[in-house]
Backbone:
């Protein structure tokens, strides 16, 4: 059920909303960590190549499908080819899984932001603080509820008055905060007890210098999978979000230009996020501080802020405010996709579906919170990692479903519908699609092969080969 007048007011509103979805928590903590883990500049190089090729193809495909069909992901594939409607259902699963834990992470960020607002934050830098918080019974649920309520309020207000208006206000502030903190990180210095000095510029060199040592075919595939999974999460492709946002784009908007702007926004912010975090962690904690996932943001960085002295608290407040903005814009896009799909599925108005999705999000997020205490377990995943409930949801959505959906989408567009269907939509208003040749080649011959390989890597199949 499409609301009357449910659309972005123009190109700027769409680009900022889409960029807001793309620029999320994954850009801020996951991208810097992966750079440090996967050879610094080597990961940057691989990621940039993927953005200019796979990212461009997948982003263009999703947005064009949305605008051409004027339907959300659940119905768009059925409109393309009725026999492929199952792909819409698979796509619907991704935001449904992500929504279970995104507001939980948003709650963690809210907790730390308020901690630095009301105190000097020394407790946050203490060993065991983060673990004590997430394993407690009530506190994580309370902060998750605050974050989820704010997300639901934005989505409840609709596309133009809610998502677009919110993005126009938040995104410029988010970019400015990231830029200021990134520049500040480069000015930092620290002297160890042995007299050795580490500087922010040395941290920047560690960040951007490629490390080819120990590179094997299997290792390169692992880096490729890390970069591609980051691309999926970062650009919000293969999860129905960009199809949903594309359905709100007016016909007169230049899709080619808008796609390029989203790519620039996302890649620029991801790079700045690395420049913001890695030099600071390197200066005060060395390479040992480059822990993965939540540990980087909620354990390593509070120690960095504590080591900064009187500057630590204001920088921490600015950082977690920025993190809150990034998490909120992404969580809004995930919830909006679920609400829009449910409106199509049940033919109910936005307000009712927003309430239903909000209840689903609340119940599942509580279960994720309990996954760190009452429902705690450890499970070995096919990609070799060990995780609990949140990690399982993240693995299924990002490492398993997204490559699989991209594989099927590339087959549908490249070989069943034909790439000219997408090219024609991009050139609807007479605009020249400069990368049309690259698009046709990639969607037919390259994307299916690489997505199949990545899917096999994510399932652990390649361990039997290499």
Residues:
């Amino acid at each position: 059920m499409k609301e009357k007048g449910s659309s972005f007011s123009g190109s700027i509103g769409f680009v900022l909303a889409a960029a807001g979805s793309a620029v999320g928590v994954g850009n801020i903590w996951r991208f810097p960590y992966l750079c440090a883990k996967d050879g610094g500049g080597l990961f940057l190089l691989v990621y940039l190549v993927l953005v200019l090729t796979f990212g461009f193809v997948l982003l263009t495909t999703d947005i064009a499908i949305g605008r051409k069909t004027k339907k959300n992901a659940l119905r768009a594939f059925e409109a393309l080819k009725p026999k492929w409607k199952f792909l819409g259902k698979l796509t619907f699963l991704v935001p449904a899984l992500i929504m279970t834990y995104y507001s939980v992470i948003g709650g963690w960020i809210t907790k730390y932001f308020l901690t630095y607002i009301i105190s000097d934050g020394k407790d946050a830098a203490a060993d065991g603080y983060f673990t004590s918080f997430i394993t407690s019974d009530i506190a994580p649920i309370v902060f998750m509820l605050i974050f989820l309520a704010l997300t639901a309020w934005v989505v409840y207000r609709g596309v133009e008055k809610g998502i677009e208006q919110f993005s126009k206000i938040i995104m410029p502030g988010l970019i400015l905060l990231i830029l200021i903190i990134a520049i500040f990180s480069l000015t930092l210095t620290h002297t160890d007890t042995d007299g050795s000095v580490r500087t922010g510029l040395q941290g920047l060199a560690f960040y951007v210098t490629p490390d080819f040592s120990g590179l094997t075919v299997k290792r390169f595939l692992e880096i490729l999978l890390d970069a591609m999974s980051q691309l999926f999460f970062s650009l919000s492709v293969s999860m129905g979000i960009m199809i949903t946002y594309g359905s709100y784009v007016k016909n007169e908007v230049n899709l080619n230009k808008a796609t390029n702007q989203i790519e620039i926004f996302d890649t620029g912010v991801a790079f700045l996020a690395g420049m913001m975090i890695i030099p600071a962690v390197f200066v005060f904690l060395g390479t040992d501080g480059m822990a993965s996932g939540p540990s980087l943001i909620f354990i390593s960085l509070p120690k960095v802020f504590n080591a900064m002295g009187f500057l630590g608290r204001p920088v921490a407040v600015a950082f977690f405010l920025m993190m809150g903005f990034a998490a909120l814009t992404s969580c809004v896009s995930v919830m909006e996709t679920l609400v829009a799909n449910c409106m199509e599925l049940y033919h109910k108005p936005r307000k009712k579906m927003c309430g239903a999705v909000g209840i689903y999000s609340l119940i599942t997020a509580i279960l994720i919170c309990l996954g760190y205490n009452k429902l705690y377990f450890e499970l070995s995943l096919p990609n070799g990692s060990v995780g609990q409930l949140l990690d399982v949801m993240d693995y299924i959505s990002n490492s398993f479903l997204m490559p699989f959906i991209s594989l099927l989408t590339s087959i549908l567009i490249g070989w069943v519908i034909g790439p000219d269907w997408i090219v024609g939509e991009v050139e609807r208003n007479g605009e020249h699609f400069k990368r049309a040749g690259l698009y046709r080649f990639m969607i037919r011959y390259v994307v299916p092969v690489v997505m199949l390989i990545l899917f096999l890597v994510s399932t652990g199949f390649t361990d039997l080969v290499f």
About this structure: Residues 1-5 have pLDDT under 50 and may be disordered. The CA atoms of residues 171 and 409 lie 30 Å apart. The longest helix spans residues 312-346. The chain is about 75% helix and 0% strand.
